[in-house]
Amino acid sequence: MKITEVKERTPLLIQKLLAVWESAVKATHLFLSDTEINEIKEYVPEALKEVKHLIAVNDEDENPVAFMGIKENKLEMLFVSDGERGKGIGKDLIKYAIDRYFVNEVAVNEQNPLAKGFYEHMGFQVYKRTDYDEQGNPYPILYMKLWQ
Known about the structure:
Layout: E1 2-5, H1 11-28, H2 34-41, H3 44-50, E2 53-58, E3 64-71, E4 74-80, H4 89-101, E5 105-109, H5 113-121, E6 124-130, E7 141-146
Parallel strand pairs: 4-5
Antiparallel strand pairs: 1-2, 2-3, 3-4, 5-7, 6-7
């Protein structure tokens, strides 16, 4: 597995990252219906194109199995395909984000306790909660900061 900074966001790469996103979301965002996942999926390609720093983890065949997006010092997204979860890839990505981009902030869905626990394990703590996500949907968001 190799962490790479994405320089060129080709349509094929965006399609592959979208598949990683969908695999991860279906495995971890159990509070979302298939309809809701499909609705959110419409916006993911644009988010992948627009996020300032896009970093992928590729397997031996150069296919992405995980990715993260960073803007300033905030982790905007981190997804690991379902088949690769639990292998330390997320931990490696977070360390990379902290070391190279000084990431110290992340927001997670409150209904995704595995993500909250993961970020707590990595040193983040909740400092704020909202009842709705950034799109105004009724999914509480936990805002977390890295306390070292």
